[in-house]
Structure formats: structure tokens, C-alpha cells
Request: fold
Amino acid sequence: MYKIMTAGPTQVRKNVLEARSLPFTNPDIDLEFYEFYKETCDLLSKLLHSSSPSFILGGEGILGLEAACASLTEPGDKVLVIDNGIFGKGFADFIKLYGGDPVLYTSDYHKPVDLDDLKGFLEENSDFKYATVVHCDTPSGVINDVHKICPLLKSYNILTVVDSVAGMFGEYVNFDEGQFDILCGGSQKALSCPPGLTMITVSEDAITSMKSRKAPIASYYANILNYIDYYDVKWFPYTMPISDIKGFRVALENVAKEKDIVERHKRIAQATRKALVASGLELYLESGYSNNVTVLNVPEGIDSDDILADLKDSHNIMISGCFDILAGKVLRIGHMGENANVADMEAVLSALGETMKKLGFPVKADMAAVFRENL
Ligand SMILES: *Cc1c(COP(=O)(O)O)cnc(C)c1O
Reply:
């Protein structure tokens, strides 16, 4: 088994794995499960500082993004797609799939969205039903200030869908303060569960918008309205993946018990960046570095596949390459959730140093030592 220091999935704590292996009841008809599920969703809302309800859906993070778009988009709706990263742009595909008309607001992928520039854009164009924005766009590692962006959009009566799949728990998230309408999360990132679940937190305004649609939602599995009354009617649209949710609950409790989880991520992330820069490697971003993933440029003349292969073969460590327009150009170290610990980060940085040296890159510093000094 490799040590997975990827941008998701992340490593999973033993108590989460154990919870998934316990005997279980029939989640369709055992009323105890409805209580357990509701308590788990309530704890999630609490940790996200939300007075709105959350729901856990069986399906990976992508399901949450698709469910948000499926449930809000009516044919012909204009939707603003805030695009400063690969996931950001990707929302346009879901919107088109459900008959909407995505309008891209594109900005430099090396930086967060500039609020003043977005303001200028909205002054000219604001007749959107909703907007999509990514909190932490993992391919570049950029973090967008969604707590400022979404209230701005809201002031134009634009609903917001926020992808914080790779943000929440490593980055500050406050649903009420951000005035988000649908916030999407995933089990396999900073929460440190195995892949398989998505979480959505849904505002009153979003539910009102879905309920007042003229066209029906063109999906069953991705129809958020099919979930929202589960507790009153004691019915889920499908059999809930109970073992996954048992593990999820323990992971959520792990998060709840930690005094300052965001601070731990921030500390690890800034020391990681210092180490990489000291070694002569280059960060992809100019600003807006996330706490959860650090993205570095592949040096010229070196093949990213060779770096990834040597890290696996010689050090038993897996980090992420990239895809789409960044394929082969950057490498990503995921330090979110259980990955965000000193020992694993030292291991990955010293391994990366050795690998880079072997491949001919003039490594200028002992990265693990620089990391330690900057913690
Ligand atoms: C991981 C991730 C998702 C979900 O992707 P899955 O493949 O379903 O896990 C969505 N958005 C972002 C920004 C992510 O990092």
C-alpha cells in the first residue's frame, strides 16, 4: 500500500474504518437510522455554521455538484459560471446538460477571483438565476473568497452554488455568513473518509427556487427535492449506504473534537510552501494558496510521470499529477485531513527531494528541514 498524499482521497483514521465494518440495520425501515442520519446531518450543519439543513447523498462529490445544477436549472436559465480553475469551468457542462445557458466569467487561473473585477462585471451583467463558484479549486490549489463573493452575488438576487468539496474542514467555512444557497462537500477530502459520499447544505431560498420551478427536475437521483422531507415522511429516495454513513459520522466527530482544525491545515500548508520554494521548485499560484493542497510546477526537462513513478517505486508515496489543461504541468501534494501531519509531510518532502535529485533537478535545500523550521 502506498502512503496516499494525494489531493483526495486522503488517508483515513482507524476509528472511521472500524465504524464502517460494524453490523448494521435496514436503513429503509429502521426508524433508528432516521434519527442517526438526522443527527449526523445536524452535526454537519453545525460544523459548517449553518442554520440550514444538510443532506448526505450516496455518491461521490461530483454528485453534489450535479444535483445542485440539476435541481436549480430550468431549460433556458442563464447561469453565471465563475471560472478561475478546472472545476470552476467544469460546472458549465452540468448546466448545459440540464438545458441551462452557462455564461463564463473567466479570470487568471493563477489567482483568486478579484472581487472588484467581479463587481464591475455584475454591474453590466446580472440577470442570472444562480452562479457557481469553487472554494478550493484543487487542480491549481487556488482558494476563492466565497464568503465575500456569495454575498455580492446575493445582492444581485443571484443564488449561489459553492463547491467546497476540497475546502471544508481545512479552510474556514461559514454557511450563514457566506449566504450560500447550496454548499457541496465530499467525504474523501479534508473530512478523511473513504470516497463515496457527497454532502449538500441547502438554503431556504434554494428550496423555494426548486419548488417554484415550472419544468420538473430532469433527474431522480440528483433531485434535491427528493431528499428534503425524508425525516417527516420517513422515506429516502433509495437505500442509504449505511456503513459509509457510520464511518462518516465518526470522521465528523473527529473533526468536531479538534480544537482548531483550520489552523493545523494552515500551519502545514505554509511550511510546505516554504520548503518547496527553498529547494528551488516553483509554486503554480501567484496568490490565493489553499491550506489543503500545494501545487508546484513540473521543472522544464523533467517528465511529471517520472517523478510520480519514482516517488511510488523508491519511496512508496503517491502524490497527484493533474488533468485537463494542467496535465503533465503540475504536481499536487494533498495535505488535508489526516494527511496534514508533520511526519507524513516530512516523509513526502524528503522523498520528493531525493526523487528530484535523481532526475537531475538541482535541489537547493533539505525540504524536510526547512518544513520543520517553519512550522
Ligand atoms: C474532489 C473534488 C470534487 C469531487 O470529485 P470526485 O471525483 O467526485 O471526488 C469536486 N470539486 C472539487 C474542487 C474537488 O476537489
